[in-house]
Amino acid sequence: MRALDRKVLRDLRGIWAQCLAIAMVLACGVMVMVLSTGTQRSLTETRDAFYERHRFADVFAGVTRAPRSLLSEIAAIDGVAQAEARIVFTAMVDLEGMVEPASARVISLPALGEPALNLPLLRTGRLPDPLQPDEVALSEPFAQANGLQPGNRFRAVLNGRLRELVVTGHLLSPEYIYTLGPAAMMPDDRHFGLIWMREPAAAAATDLDGAFNDLTLSLSRGAHEAAVIAAVDRLLAPYGGTGTHGRDRQMSHVFIEGELSQLGAMARVLPPIFLVVSAFLVNMVLGRLIALERRQIGLLKAIGYPTRTIVIHYLKMTVGIGLAGTLIGWGMGWWLGHEMTALYTEYFRFPWLDYRPGAAPMVISGAAAMGAVILGAMRAVSAAVRLAPAVAMAPPAPPVYRRGWADALGYRLGLRQTTMMIVRSLTRWPGRAAVTLFGVAGSVAVLIASFVTFDIIDVVMEDLFDRTNRQHATMILHQPVTVQAELAALSLPGVLHAEGVYAAAVRISHGPGSKLVSLMARDPGADLTRLLDPEGRPIPLPDSGVALPESLATYLGLMPGDKVEVELLAPPRKPWAVTVTQVFRQSMGQDILMRRDAFFDLMNETPQVNMLHLAVDTSALPALQTRIKQTPAIAGFTLWADVRASMEATMNESLITMTIIFSGLGMLITIGVVYNAARIQLAERAHELASLRVLGFRRAEVGNVLIAEQMLLTLVAVPVGWLLGYWFAILMTQGFSTDIISLPMVISRATYAQAALTALATAFVSVLMVRRRLDRIDIVTALKQKE
Amino acid sequence: MQRIARARTPVLSTEAITKVYRSGPVAVHALDGVSVRLFEAEVVVLLGASGSGKSTLLNILGGLDQPTSGRVMFRDQDLSAVEDAALTEFRRKHVGFVFQFYNLVPSLTARENVALVTEIAGDPMPPEEALDRVGLSGRMDHFPSELSGGEQQRVAIARAIAKRPDILLCDEPTGALDSKTGITVLEALIGVNRDLGTTTALITHNAEIRRIADRVIYMADGRITKVEENSTPIAPSEVSW
Fold first, then answer.
1. Are residues B107 and A428, on separate chains, in Cβ contact within 8 Å?
2. Helical pair A417-428 and A699-736, crossing angle rounded to 10 deg
């Protein structure tokens, strides 16, 4: 090994703790990149493979009742590769030993063989026998959650008739990777599942012989999706088409897309922070090392080493740090990627999901890490090698101090001399102070961005469950019925109050933008579900026009007073120009609201409801649930307490894990920055600090000089970090908001305080680690070294 | 020259102290059974070649280091058996140091370097008075980098005496200075001794300087080889080298 290379290794060993601190910050950036882009890639690839192998459809349509003969016309539409008609309906399921009702979506399988599209994957057992009308296959998560094995029997209410069904197998479908029940917010495998039934049996159960009510299409390459959708809409319209949409409105697909875009947001926002901080740290530490080695550099030049060799020598040190950071980051990213992927498999039911980040995230993160540290090193190195050998070998000129505004302020405040030393050190090396300041500020910002999740979730949960949805339960009806149902519901056991809603699928359009959403038509006096103004205060439903959630209004560029086109996807399908009369706050979903009478005036029909919100005497809940299981008209029943509990459980599991990880990352920046700054301060001022000990300053007093400077910087960094954190939180809420969830931007005082305290405590511990070294310094030896 | 009356009471004394530095298998005996006494208000010069043990002795006397064996007494207090914290208190209250390379805090002005000590001392003199005593009243607000070597050393002396120490320990205070500047520094030291009665021990390898002392202790190979009383110390201005 060459002498210079040996020097690299020894130098690295000499400052290993500092190098490790930088490497760890760097590793965080690399880790987040590997974790997020790797997980994104794994999810995308698995999804795409599942979609392809199991022929996930491109276009989906609902219809009330269309004749089978229409299928050939649909298949003939330009751009349609394959068309498949199905029967899909909702059923209540009565499971042994379960008081509360469960519901299921029943999907028909062709009378013979496998479906052409959305081919389910058989996990165990077999598909139902076409000759056995009672045989069904179940979605695997639902079957597992309820312990239903092939051969087991269970009861279900199919279109008002109680039937006993036999399980033949467990399936997974590309259409239901993420499964949500009616009116549910989170997957609930115990209470909602999928039932596959042969078509004759499904047709018999729903009186749809020779007809279908659900259509799926695959498109040929280069097909124009919008044109196909318009054509399908036209063909289905006479038969009560309830709307045709692409994958962009397919529930499971939308959720996966949302998750992928959140991972993308994470990969964009976080790594740059860590890389920039690492670059500055390398610059700081290497700058200091080179300053110490000035004479050696002069000597190397004097004995004939070319500048290039010397530059490469120092870059090798940097590469060592970069390599360590990259490897640690890869390792952590790989491990966390596996953990995160495992977490995803609980919500996304893929038949397989392996964490395969591929080479790209590794290569990109490694290159970014190396680039950051080399860039950080270049400045320090280039300044040093530019010196002529004779100049480099002479000791550097002592630092020049000048009196400035800080001194005048110091005198006025009567600061002690040890404090003045700190003030002068900060004003003399503002660049170094700035690195610490912005590093810690970045750390505070990352901490805010991680703690703020709890604030946001608090608001979302409070809005959702305490302010907007105050009903105990929501009942979904098979068919729309008159508003008398509100009165009829009062005869059910324990029902104290019932408010009916008519939910209809509509297309809302303004200018070039349009969206498929649910329109909720309800009584203006309804009090169980309420509307909130942007500040979260309940407001009445406007007398006329339509009320829009903020996210939708922003997307379509609408303000109160604007006219918007609302088109019902079911008959009469006529577009109406309606005035936007209210924009309200809503974090989950994008439902739009209208007064029931106004809506049905437009429809020119008597008011109806297809959904009932209930206030219930909870002591009578079991009786109510038993009754509901026996009531054929009810297609779904959701208890809001269950929805809340399952949401909270999910939040607790995934959010706490993520918060711990990100707080850890935030703290690592502070450790990296403060530890390095304190080490440099100690190295440069050991002589000065030893002098203080000679003069009779106690260990604690001398230690305080070291601690106070770093803590002062940390303290100043806190408000800067708050500002930066506010900005991060905005980026995050925007990046993480999807069509399904729009996150409010709220940061509580507690979050600001927790972030500040965490950074201060971390900085304190980091500087204490350095202070221990100060205690070990031998005064006599330190004094012998001339400044 | 007339110095203030010297009572023969020892302020600081050592009894057969040794100091052994170990570096792997090698043991270096820096001090080898040194017994010495420093009396109230006297000026002692420690003379010896480099490596003779002068600095080690001075460090032990000043509580910067502890002997391997033997006793160090400050008045009635045994310093050889105390913790580091007690040594710090001893230095803080009773000892002033002056070093060859000044050891000033570069980020503090002359006045602030002195105030550094007066802020933690029990009964200090104002920094301005200390600086006035060493003839630096006109340079108080200069940073060390704006002062000459002699001026920096005088700031160091002002800093050492500002707390009115019982003992002033000076390790080669003129070592880095030319003779003219060295003499001004010595004058400052002797002036303080004369005015405040501070016991002063001064290390030098410049034999000429011994003529300003009341006693001269000669050292070689970690031992005291000779102690010389000087009944007629001369003023620093009369010394030349």
1. yes
2. 40
- Collect all residues of chain A within an 8 Å Cβ-Cβ radius of residue B163: 696
Q: A762 to chain B, minimum CA–CA distance in Å?
A: 28
Look up the pTM and report it. Answer: 0.80
Domain count, chain A: 3
Within a domain: B11: no
Cα(A171)–Cα(A161) distance, rounded to whole angstroms?
25
Whether residue A261 sits in one domain with residue A242: no
Asked if residue A214 has pLDDT above 60, the reply is: yes
Per the structure, the complete domain to which residue A43 belongs is given by: 1-58+252-387
Q: What is the mean pLDDT of chain A?
A: 88
What's the rounded mean pLDDT across residues A234-257? 89
- For residues A535 and A545, is the Cβ–Cβ distance under 8 A? no
pLDDT score, position A183: 67
pLDDT over threshold 70, residue A785 = no
Distance from CA of B238 to the nearest CA of A (A): 31
In this predicted structure, the answer to whether residue A687 has a pLDDT above a threshold of 80 is: yes
Domain of residue B114, residue span: 40-64+90-238
Residues A597 and A516 in one domain: yes
Q: Please report, for the domain that includes residue B57, its CATH number.
A: 3.40.50.300
Q: Is residue A89 domain-shared with residue A174, that is, in the same domain?
A: yes
Nearest in space to A344 (alpha carbons), one of A357, A328, A355, A356: A355
- Same structural domain, A193 and A68: yes
Q: What does DSSP assign to residue A525?
A: T
Burial class (CB in 10 A: 0-12, 13-18, 19+), A182: middle
Q: What is the pLDDT of residues A99-157, one digit of tens each?
A: 888 889 999 999 998 999 999 999 999 999 999 999 999 999 999 999 999 999 999 98
Complex prediction ipTM: 0.83
Q: Are residues A9 and A116 in the same domain?
A: no
Confidence (pLDDT) at B5: 42
The answer to whether the Cβ–Cβ distance between A428 and B143 falls below 8 Å is no
